[in-house]
Each structure stands twice: as C-alpha cells, then as structure tokens.
Amino acid sequence: xxxxxxxxxxxxxxxxxxxxxxxxxxxxxxxxxxLLSGATMADKAYELKCLIALLTELKLADPRIxxxxxxxxxxxxxxxxxxxxxxxxPCVVMLRGNHPIAEIWTNIxxxxxxxxxxxxxxxxxxxxxxxxxxxxxxxxxISDGYPKTRDLLIGVEAKHRPYNKSLLKExxxxxxxxxxxxxxxxxxxxxxxxxxxxxxxxxxxxxxxxYASISDYDGPSGYFGVRMDHLPL
Length: 233
Known about the structure:
The protein is of the alpha+beta class. Helix content is 28%, strand content 28%. α1 packs across α2 (29-35) and α1 runs parallel beside α3.
C-alpha cells in the first residue's frame, strides 16, 4: 500500500488550489497552474494547501492586507530546501496598501539559534546549522541566504501523514532552534490573534496535519508557542 504522502493528487484538488491562488494572488489561470507544477504528489500539494490556509487566516486577521506574487526566473514554488534566492524562486509578498510588511517563502532553511550563537559561518553550512521549514513568513526585504531567527515571524510544518511521537519530537526540536521559551513577548504582527508568545525571538510555529491524529499530540504546544491544527487536504 502506498504511503499517503506519495499518492498522486486528484485533479479536483489541483483545480481548487489553482482557483485559490488566482483569488489570493490576483494571477491568471496559467500562472496559477505554473505555481502548482511541482505539486503532483500529495505531500507537495498539501504544503500548498497549507499556504492557502495561512493566506486565508492572515487576511481574516487583518482585512486591510493583500498579497502579490514576486516572481523569480522559476514560476513555480520551490519544493526542495535551501536558502532564499530572489533571483530564482518566487515568494508571496504581504502588503498593507502599497507597503510590504512580510514575505512568505516555501521550503526555506533558516539559520538555527545554535549556529547564530556560536558565530558559525554559513557560506557552506554543516547539516546542523540550518533547518528547513515548509513555509516561512519573514520580515520584508531581508537578504538572500539563510534567514536568521530574528527575521522569522511564522514557520509552518505541513504533514500529510498520520501524526506520531516521532513527528512531535521533530517539531519540538525545530522549535528549540527557532526560539527559546521566555516570558510573554509581543509578536511583530501585533494584529495576529496570538500577539503575545512565550518565546524569544517571538515567532509562531504552526503544524498542519491532514490527519486528525495530530490532536492526540498537542499537549506541549501552548507551552512552547506552537499551534497544531488538523487541516484535511
């Protein structure tokens, strides 16, 4: 039996995602289709489903914001981890009026707290110096390369598979390298519904899962400023 992550995506799912990108990013059907060209399997399609969920939630939290696609030479979302590369890969710019207030990137590796605090040089990072997140929301106009934790506003892990203890341990390990538990600190997106967070630097880590089993593992989430949501594909 095939694992759920490697199952081909139904045409109806791709159509829904394409319409959602047309709506949120104000792009035509051709561009929306190109953005989805790497999402032929369920795991990658699920990441983009989570991107749509994040855009929808941000817009609900502040109706004044809008989104725009900033293209690189590739008109498809990145599907393998690495640094920010504006020349090559597209991102979603979040705007209030004409003023960019954040950017959303797919499959980006960030510089870990342990690497930063040990002054590691990330020209050629070792395996432990960066960690990949499926989606990141950063401050606007940061430099190319591996973003630092102070630039991360929201991180997202997208899992289209039954949740288990191993995934929870992985999630909490990533959280430790994003932020340390601290007194309540105000998040940079002050209009977000979780504006006060128990961590520093103040960032939100969201775990989306296509299976309801994620709710069995959400005990530690609030303590570390993590949110764990069941989001079907």
